Design the sequence.
């Protein structure tokens, strides 16, 4: 059933993308990615509610590592000519993934804990990323102001927040590990 459902999801996403005139990459980065991640989200939410936070974190990180390394690696091995990586992915999406990994580093300084406000910030970043991808794909008039707002406001606030969190952790009062 999983193979059938995955095949059905991919086929429907391709038809959907072509019908709307949107690239298959955008559909893959948004609709398919969200759809295939819903089981991980559900499992992580249930684990967090039950107090099993290690399961929630392990599920999210494990799923990401599995998808990037194993799924992408096996797919590249099986594909006759490998997998071509679009220039837009190299220029934007991969740097965003690296930036998100760097944004997670302060978690190491804050007692290995993600607070609710940090979760809300990560969710807002995901929504902003998805908005950018859709605006770029549709070549919408709002792309330029949206990009400018991200560079002028969001990027500096993010950098400042990262610096403050790291400095507080290094020079502020530290709570002993529980």
Sequence:
């Amino acid at each position: 059933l999983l193979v059938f459902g995955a095949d059905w999801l991919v086929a429907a996403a391709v038809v959907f993308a072509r019908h709307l005139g949107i690239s298959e990459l955008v559909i893959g980065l948004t609709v398919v990615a969200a759809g295939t991640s819903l089981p991980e989200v559900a499992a992580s939410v249930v684990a967090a509610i039950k107090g099993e936070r290690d399961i929630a974190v392990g599920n999210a990180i494990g799923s990401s590592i599995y998808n990037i390394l194993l799924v992408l690696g096996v797919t590249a091995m099986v594909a006759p000519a490998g997998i071509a990586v679009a220039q837009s992915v190299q220029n934007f999406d991969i740097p965003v993934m690296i930036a998100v990994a760097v944004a997670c580093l302060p978690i190491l300084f804050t007692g290995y804990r993600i607070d609710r406000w940090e979760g809300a910030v990560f969710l807002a970043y995901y929504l902003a990323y998805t908005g950018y991808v859709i605006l770029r794909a549709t070549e919408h008039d709002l792309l330029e102001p949206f990009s400018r707002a991200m560079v002028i406001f969001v990027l500096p606030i993010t950098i400042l927040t990262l610096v403050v969190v790291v400095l507080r952790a290094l020079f502020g009062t530290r709570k002993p590990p529980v």
